Amino acid sequence: MLPDKRGYFGAYGGRFVPETLMPALEELTQAYQQAQQDAAFQREVSYYLKHYVGRPSPVYRAAALSKKIGGADIYLKREDLNHTGAHKINNTVGQLLLARRMGKKRIVAETGAGQHGVATATVAALLGLQCVVYMGEEDIYRQSPNVFRMRLLGAEVVKVSSGSGTLKDAMNEAMRDWVTNVRNTFYVIGSVAGPHPYPVMVRNFQAIIGEEAREQMLAQRGALPDCVVACVGGGSNAMGIFYHFLPLQEVKLVGVEAGGLGLHTEQHAATLNAGRPGVLHGAYSYLLQDVAGQVRPVHSISAGLDYPGVGPEHSYLKDSGRVQYITATDEEALEAFHLLARTEGILPALESSHALAGAIKLAAQMNKQQSILVCLSGRGDKDVPTVAKTMGVELI
Question: Which one of 220, 238, 253, 395 is least enclosed by Cβ atoms within 10 Å?
Fold first, then answer.
């Protein structure tokens, strides 16, 4: 069972952090292990997922989209219908209940697209915890509706202007805050990244996506999907839906990275397709870096995928060949966004639009008796200003 006791998925993972954080990570590891074995904690998480988040999220057969493409049947796991509009809240419910159990009164988080920040601010308000969210200046501009939502929920949003002003820089600042205030502060990482135990803890809190989806596909279609597709930035929604399908070799698993303006440019965020192993944010994993080993600037139209690293378990799954990682460009993601809107009446997040773009390409190569399950990780309301800009439309 991976990770091992040191937090490694094969060669990837581990803890590469300042000495001052090691006691905090040990405290977190022990608290999480005890909580996993505590039936009362598990019942508490399940209660909030059912009655507050609205789980189980449905699986929906996108018949009109499938007919338009003319290949395999496409099904959507509707994480966009969760409270706050994305899969992120599955993890924040778990981590903030754990923070309260540990007696931590102050929460720090980082966010790119804002969905993790909104989910953290939401659960912090619910549990009466102080919340500080770090967000890159560029992402604050791109995701202004989510910034306002976080502030309405009582969170302090701290603008990060260093570096490229995106998720990587926000994560740097959140970790600095945690190092400074580690005694009373809990750091809620939003993806399957960071030092051990975050990758396994976030994966386990998100694994309910795949657990539900596997049962729902069997009940609705009478068979497992032939293929499961999810977008990959840090990779939390993908690990969430992949996890319970990993032992089922008959199910193909595909992760879709942000191809940005194309892999022939350096304007993309395709870490697994164009990176090489290195250390970022406390873990050893694939990483986009220049010839000198410095972290390379990245680009994606989706703020949530605009990250130069990836969760270490994805690196292991790439090397093992169990998961295939492909890319979708900004243009392909936008086409998928518009196609789903017009065929099914659903506005997907731009992150999810990358998964859809990958699924559309795969479906066209498959027959009508086959099926693809796509993780629709979030709703697209937050991305309407970005999409409008690409269309040359000025919103009033």
Answer: 395
Question: Residue 394 pLDDT more than 90?
Answer: no
Q: Quick one: 193 and 279 in the same domain?
A: no
- Span 128-139, pLDDT tens digits: 999 999 999 988
Residue 119: C-alpha distances to residues 80, 103, 185, 230, 350 (Å): 12, 20, 18, 20, 18
pLDDT bucket at 167, cuts 50 / 70 / 90 = confident
User: Which phi and psi angles does 138 have, rounded to 5°?
Assistant: -65, -40
| Domain total of the chain | 2
CATH number assigned to the domain comprising residue 240: 3.40.50.1100
Residue 88 appears among annotated catalytic residues: yes
Nearest to 273 by CA among 358, 331, 196, 168: 358
| Distance from C-alpha of 54 to C-alpha of 26, rounded to nearest angstrom | 33
Q: Which among 78, 144, 99, 15 is positioned nearest to 340, based on CA atoms?
A: 78
Mean pLDDT for 115-134 is: 97
Catalytic residue among 77, 88, 104, 168: 88
Residues 59 and 125 in one domain: no
Cα atoms in the Cβ-side hemisphere of radius 13 Å centred on 115: 33
Decide which of 179, 197, 215 is a domain's last residue.
197
Q: Which of 300, 302, 353, 377 is catalytic?
A: 377
Contact predicate 375/230, CB 8 Å: yes
260, part of any domain: yes
Which domain does 313 fall in, by range?
A: 55-85+199-391
215-251 tens-digit pLDDT: 999 999 999 999 999 999 999 999 999 999 999 999 9
Residue 7 lies in a domain: no
Query: pLDDT value at position 2?
Result: 87
Whether 377 is catalytic = yes
**Are 217 and 285 in a shared domain?**
yes
The verdict on residue 223 lying in a domain is yes
Q: 273 in a domain, yes or no?
A: yes
Whole-number Å distance between alpha carbons of 64 and 80? 19
Active-site residue (options: 110, 173, 257, 313): 110
pLDDT at 45: 98
